[in-house]
Design brief:
By secondary structure, this protein is of the alpha+beta class. A hairpin with a 3-residue loop joins strand 1 and strand 2. 0% of the residues are buried. It has one domain.
Length: 83
């Protein structure tokens, strides 16, 4: 009765396997932001999975609670994409 949860891999929204490719995808995102495709943005949080797991926050002054809230909301959307 102890079934293991099914692991569903997420397709990356910008496949990149080298640092150069990652930088190109980030530049593409920056172009979209600059072009207004995301509307008015208050904050951007990036999680960097390298030798250590880090995060950076860009934009207006942002509290820890706001950052945690944005990440929690993102987690919910990843876990429940149909909601």
């Amino acid at each position: 009765m102890n079934e293991r949860p099914k692991v569903v891999p997420l397709p990356p929204s910008g496949l990149a396997v080298t640092n150069r490719q990652l930088a190109e995808r980030l530049r593409g995102l920056a172009d979209e932001v600059e072009g207004g495709e995301w509307g008015d943005i208050d904050h951007v949080v990036a999680v960097i999975d390298g030798p250590t797991l880090e995060h950076v926050v860009y934009g207006h002054v942002c509290s820890r609670a706001t950052t945690v809230g944005m990440l929690t909301y993102a987690i919910h959307n990843i876990m429940h994409p149909d909601r």
